[in-house]
Amino acid sequence: MIVAGEGWVCGSDEIKIPLASGKAAFWETGEFHAAGTDSDMTVLTVEGKKLHACNLPILKNIISND
Asked: Domain coordinates of the chain in residue numbers?
């Protein structure tokens, strides 16, 4: 989840999706992904074996490949 600034994320298709503060991205286990910024970006990263976006209310503004 981006907590300040802006940047982009992409999956295996390498198409950059712009994201700004308050937005989040979710990847499945083992899924190729990348993130970056051309300015400044501060993020909160959460990882876990049994994580699902639907169980994390903080990720109400999610972007995914579904």
From this structure: 2-63
